[in-house]
Amino acid sequence: MQCNEILVQCLSCLLFFGGAGYFFRQTSVHTPYGRYVELFKKPTLVPAKLAWFLQELPSFLVPILLWCKAAGQLSTNKTVLLMMFCAHYFQRTFIFALLTRGRPSPLPIMIYAVIFCAINGFFQGYYIVYCAEYDDAWLTDIRFILGGIMFLLGMAINIHSDHILRNLRKPGEITYKIPRGGMFEYVSGANFLGEIIEWFGYALATWSLPTLSFAFFTLCSIGPRAYHHHR
Fold first, then answer.
1. Where are any strands of DSSP class E within the chain?
2. CA distances from 31 to 108, 111, 178, 214, 225 (A)
3. Where in or outside the cell (predicted)?
């Protein structure tokens, strides 16, 4: 498979413009999942554990398949960067999904998430495997080092914040409680903040337009949600 620069540029622009459009939509409309599900409308719901597993799986599985296909041809630099992306989605697919106590997700929202994760998983994996170019010293470059630190810090904040949220309520409780501790002492959406930091760190570590466009899309999609939580 050869690198298609036009495809890379088009998908990057799509994430930038899609993120901006989603941002402005969310300033007036709450995406109907989690606490914003309107149960009285009786949507078709998918259990939280299953929904999170299915919708996050493509972002892990697709890059892994691309990596396997190119096994033996990738440099250490590319392998490390691709595994950073996969590490996030391994945690979200096989650990977060198993532990979550969240509310069921509407079926359409889950389907949209599956489609997005499949496309983005392919896009990010395709770029790293077939398009990105790094010299032999990239893993000692200041951009990779700072980006890697940001990525790990963001992941740690995200995982710790999810742990706090899971332990807010006893099994079966649905009453909303304000989280305390960790980064929740400073921001209302600490889990969202962690993921935003994580992906901007990854964009710095890879120094690429596709990863920056994904980081921007993440900011636009979960940033307004954090604002709604705060209100």
1. 45-46, 105-106
2. 11, 14, 20, 19, 8
3. Endoplasmic reticulum membrane; Microsome membrane
Contact 198, 217 (CB under 8 A): no
Encoded tokens for 159: 């995982």
In this structure, what token pair is assigned to residue 40?
Answer: 């009285």
136 phi and psi angles, rounded to 5 deg: -65, -20
pLDDT tens digits, residue range 105-121? 999 999 999 999 999 99
Q: What is the DSSP string of 23-80?
A: HHHHTTS--SSGGG--GGG---EE-HHHHHHHHHHHHHHHHHHHHHHTTTTS-HHHHH
Most distant CA pair in the chain, distance: 58
d(CA 134, CA 44): 46
CA 61 vs CA 23, 85, 211, 215: distances in Å: 28, 11, 18, 20
Residues 10 and 210: beta-carbon distance below 8 Å: no
DSSP type of residue 221:
H
Lowest model confidence (mean pLDDT) among 43-47, 56-60, 158-162: 43-47
Q: Nearest to residue 59, comparing CAs of 113, 1, 108?
A: 113
